[in-house]
Amino acid sequence: MRPMSRRTFLKAGALAGAACAAPVAFDFASFVKGAAEAPVTKVPSTCNGCSTNCALWAYVKNGRLWKIEGVPLAMKNEGKLCARAHGVAADVYNPDRVTQPMKRTGDGQFAPITWDEAFKEIGDRLTKIIDKDGADKVVWLGHGGKETYAQMLLDEIGSANYVTHYSTCFTSKTNAWDKMVGAQLTSDINRAKYMLFCGRNYGGGIMPGAMRKIMRAKDRGAKIVVVDPRLCELAKVADEWLPIRPGTDLAFFLGIAHTLISEKLYDEKFVKDYVFGFEEFWSANRSFTAEKAAELCDIPAAKIRAIARELAKNAPAAFLEPGYHGLHNHYAASTQIAQANVIVNALLGNFYKHGGLMPAASPKFGQLRLPKRLQPEKGPRADGAGVANEYPTVELSRGIAQDMPGLIARGKLKALFVYHNNPLRTAPDPEYQKRIAKADLVVAIPVDWNETAVHTAHYILPEHYYLERMDAPKSTGGNIAHDYPQAVMRFPALKPLHNTKHLLDILKGLSKAMKIDDLYPFTVEEEAAAMLGGLGTTVAGMKESGCYEVPEAVKAEFPMKDGQPALTTTTGRVEFSVGAFKLHGRMGVPVWIPPLVSPKGEAEFRLIHGKQPWHSHSVTSNSPYLMAITRSYNGARLWMNRGRADKLGIGDGDTVTLETTIAYKGESRPVRKTVAVKVTEMLHPDCVWLPNGYGNFSPKQKVGYQQGVNYNDFAPARVEALSGSCMVQEVIVTVRKGG
Ligand code: SF4
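^ thats the input. predicted complex w/ iron/sulfur cluster below
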């Protein structure tokens, strides 16, 4: 992967010469020939550049990573990999990785510690905290992928506090779909005739397989409409781009629903047979016409009606794509936006229909049989998810990630583990997040010196890089439909370069130090064998193929039992009205809710953000290759509408100052950052847009340090009451020319 530099080559030559003792002439031609002809091994893995889990082959030559390639069968990437994948793979050699366990000795200062010492010290401190304060003061803040090992430790000590990063990403969506449908349905791009994407950009928050499916759909004549304040990458290939006023997607969705119902274009039979709460929704929204929606969202009423009619004409092979981060962590009304999305799709009658929305293609993995253990009862969750009088409707499986400092201040959190997560950079308000350091014990389990590790951890326990480890099989299902479930798996392609460990071995060491007897009596390989046994393949089979496709097709059938709809909702039907929301004093159905804040005056803008195809939040911010792409495209700039920029005398390439005040929980703090501007017609005038992946503030990450700014710098760590998300686009900034 990395060509041998002249310096490395000379060093290798010098070492070879020293080893030979006798003065032997070094033959460069033979050396190059030998290196070129060295055998190549090919090992399957899954990319760690984002949550998509694209399956890849890692090619290894002379013990070094040579290249990576996508696995053609894998549904999420169809043989392709995005730029991030290559940058993240090359980062296995990044000099800013944490190379051994470390213990804090001062502000930003760490000293090496052995694994055994680290386990003993952490184990002792954790045991004391549990004895004195209770296990419910121990929190695991992970990424949320598949951290069953962490869950086992929490079960053993009696903590309910498994928290994922999802509330900083998309929980409004999963919460609404879980409560209204009991499933996260996925869009059948392969067969759709009409696709409406709102706040979803498969070309920026890239998913290679989704983009390939979209392009094939376009070739066969499917219509693609993208609604986004910015001409995002997906909008560039769409038939239509509608630059909506940011923060008003709910109005647009309600306008479409109104047209479908008032013009009797909706699937009445589907609604009669499978929906609960239609009348309640309609009586609450009968007056919310397309015209009313148009006044708010800046898309003409005639266009809203035309889209509704086109959706209906092509239904059920048509969908409003359910979305992901794009709308579901952004606004006070994000939960209602997701509710309205469910309702528009249900009105089209596209649930469990080819070309519409299908269940995720998820394999039914087998399970490792482990001896039953006597475990203590758990107390309430520290973050308040699912707790009466706190956040009763927030999903227990995901929790609330952004307010760890609040839990510490209220005495609800004493010990925090942070795994494959970096809240100081990926959650709102880094100055607030730095207070994580005030916990009695903070243990970071990263691969690199990220901001959370550097600024808050008492101990850093470095994990093997993804290319150095075997991980249990994963499903590729979710987001996009596929006819057959698939499993993918990581195998170690490289020997660990540093003194790091697999997460399972870290937790084995820690639990042993806490005198917990044999909590993990298995290896990853044994776990993988048990999981795959249920599918009809083996670990060896996975190593051979890189991706296994289950032969049993996903069914296009609405779940039924004894002749009745049998979704896992209370009524078995699609619930337009969520009873749990009503129980807690909210409306069960979505109605228009205006944004919390709106720009006023010439210099104020809503701050919105999105992904570029070569960066993923903070994980790529220190990649020399990906930051080189940023430099060559001048990619860290703030986008600003040309008309608005002209009025403020701001030109393309100028430096501007962004200012806001973070006022939250009785505190008020000004924030001021400077950034270069890209002036463009391709953005709604009400907002400015920041690419994410920048604003690294870990001095130990030399490539990304202080490059660009980040949207989280300007947002308070708020919690939206129904789903726990951060509302990070409820932020107004003032923009002025100059630094
Ligand atoms: S989309 Fe790109 S970064 Fe994400 S898993 Fe796939 S290849 Fe990796």
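Residues 604-737 form a domain with the Barwin-like endoglucanases fold (CATH 2.40.40.20).
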